[in-house]
Predict the structure of N-acetyltransferase.
Amino acid sequence: MRITAGAPPLDRAIALYDAVGWTAYTRDPDRLARSLAGSHLVVTAWDDDGGLRGLARTVSDGESICYIQDLLVHPASRRRGVARALLEDIQGRYGHCMFLALSTDAEGTEDAALSHPFYRALGFQPHAELRLAAFGYRP
């Protein structure tokens, strides 16, 4: 597996987002293209045959905070270290920042049962354990 910086070709990104069922991103390819272009960093995981296996992207000021916007791994490549490699790459690039943040599914959901222990293993903690609160707004 090879981790590289830079957005993949749009058709490859669309195929990956489709494979994980993130249709909110794929129903408007131009919007996905703008999202990738507007990211502070996009890192990708590629297999030896040139297949796109995973992608992570950040929104950041590059100094004080890094928000991990997306982390996705092709279903055929899950549980093979792809997500770990992508997140460890990001942690290395943003280790000088004061805070790395991400949002994921709430406790009690099916995805949380897998993702929460994974994020904890990489040093992430729920905001409440850091004496922080997170708020969201959907227009």
